[in-house]
Amino acid sequence: QVQVGEYGGGLVQPGGSLRLSCVVSGSISSIYAMSWYRQALGKQRELVATITSSGTSNYADFVKGRFSISRDNAKNTVYLQMNSLKPEDTAAYYCNVEGSSRIYWGQGTQVTVSS
Predict the structure, then answer these.
(1) Rounded CA gap, 115 and 43, in Å?
(2) Is 77 helix (H, G, I), strand (E, B) or coil?
(3) Is the pLDDT of residue 83 over 90?
(4) Is the pLDDT of residue 1 over 90?
(5) What is the C-alpha to C-alpha distance for residues 74 and 65, in angstroms, rounded to an integer?
């Protein structure tokens, strides 16, 4: 059974930083793309950033220059470094993992940006 767990959310002031981690554990044969999504209260879930197995990354326009995605394939872990956080970044952040036969989601971690 595959489990996806997100860590690192919390409350931060505007302009601050947080680092999210997502760890994939269990019997998973291959991991392809790993992504972060977010969903604010009352809004649809949206893609934040994606990184391929070879390390190519893509970002949503609203986080370019502020967020950075990275991964450690040996640890089946993906990270999201979030800098210059804004109140509008407040949301539940979800990890999305592309396996060989299906997509896995984590339970999400809450990020709140407020003074």
Answers:
(1) 22
(2) strand
(3) yes
(4) no
(5) 27
